[in-house]
Write the structure tokens for this entry.
Amino acid sequence: MKRILFSIIIILLVGLGIVPNVNDAFAAEHTSTSHSNQEQSLSKHKILHTNDIHGRFVEEKGRVIGMPKLKGLKNKENPDLVLDSGDAFQGLPVSNHSKGEEMAEAMNKVGYNAMAIGNHEFDFGYNQLLKLQSKVKFPMLSSNIYKNGKRVFKPSTVIKRNGVRYGIIGVTTPETKIKTSPDAVKNVEFKDPLNSVKNAMKHIDGKVDVYIVLSHLGIDKNTKEQWRGDYLTDQLSKDKSFKQPIIVLDGHSHTAIKHGMKFHNNILAQTGTALENVGKIDFTFNHGNVSDLTASLINVKDTSNVKADPALEKQVNKANDEFKKQTSTVVIPNNKVEFNGERNIARKQETNLGNLITDAMEDYATKNFKHKPDFAITNGGGIRASISKGKVTKYDIISVLPFGNLISQIKVKGSDVKKAFEHSLSAPTETKNGKKQLSSNGGFLQVSKSIRVYYDINQKSGSRVKDIQVVNHDTGKFEKLDPNKTYYVATNDFTANKGDGYDMFGGKREEGISLDEVVGSYIQKHDLSKYNTTHPVRVINGKPSSAKKSTSDSNQHTHSKNSTSKTAQPHKKSA
């Protein structure tokens, strides 16, 4: 119509003897039309994403956003997609109680579009993972999981939203083999992340405008470089065969990256853990081109005025109230000791809560197993909360030990005991407040009263253990570890079955009740004042002062002059 009117005007002007510059006129009209079309094709887009929620579907003021508010945030932001990068179902006892099914229902109500499979998705067993997959109304993705040689889950999905074709690929950490129940990943293979993701991307190449990799790999420096999310993003960015932008939404390392990490024109983002933050990706889309790609975090405070979804809030509160009612039994009415279970402490050095748990394990094994244990150990990564002073309920203890692991006992040769502690103390070192310390490692072993481990943090990984002493239960005295002797070691079924990389363990084992029951029974019957310390006295960076110290002395948790590090004061926040 515009062009017809324009032609009529030109004819009239010529009839009046006025000869316009037709080329300029057409150029002006074309420029105006092009500008209008450009404005129409220019669009703003956003994606909301989460990772490592670990069962936090209930809001905790100032700490956890919760799923009802996440849905409210989705309604407010109106994103193209809501995505998760794994470890959603397992974590808090209230979520574990239903083996992740309450969390699956909450994610459905929020309206997730896809999620990656994390290592802890296997924690309730392989069959339960398949059941959870059948319950969610969105694809659970992983491009590198195979069972008995066959692919198990969809590697990718393509979703078109508001004119943008998103190609979404999932990838799962190969660390899953040692960071979940070994029985759950029997005959399961986790193939190379980079090659798996590349193959999945090539399969949908030409069908997408933007690639999104839901990466449960993490950026922890303790993880093998080729298995890390930052390595994956860097290598994908260097591959010139992929022309479209790549957004890597990462998880696993529980790292909050405020504005993401840029790799050329691509970006990696991660939100931390426990739904303390929700990630947001923003970009501009114009004729197939992406620009202004940014990452940001929406934290708990930012959501203070967000209205929670009423129906979802009612659902999750009901589940939470029912669980608390079932676990409200008071175990001890007036605990006088702060027990430290902070994630960043229990994974790098001895804590008084680790001492309590392992002493309880040794006590149970002594009274209930066929063979009396020489000592007890448990992995620091299995300790998930602290115990505060005052009333202690069954719920509090389950919060500390939420996985339902069973106490187990295995036979371990002395030489393998040393290998185990070299593995426990193998994390890279870091310096904080001028002091060298081990970095966080879920495989760090907390130990019972009947063993002492002395190490030198200044030595290289694999050569740090300087002395190990074990109580001779006939004499009550500590003796040097005998590399040729077989020791009975009480532990949990996860570690006993080579979890956290303890390949030197395994074999036949005795099994008992769950660890939370072991600890609950122990604290009702024993004096807890001996645990009122913040100083390592069992796993010590230093030299032994006496190899003949009696086990009765070892129960007194007082300051050790050989200790070179101080445990941080307990904090009520759970990890």
Q: What stands out?
A: The longest helix spans residues 22-41. The domain at 42-320 is CATH 3.60.21.10 (Purple Acid Phosphatase; chain A, domain 2). The chain has 16 helices and 28 strands.
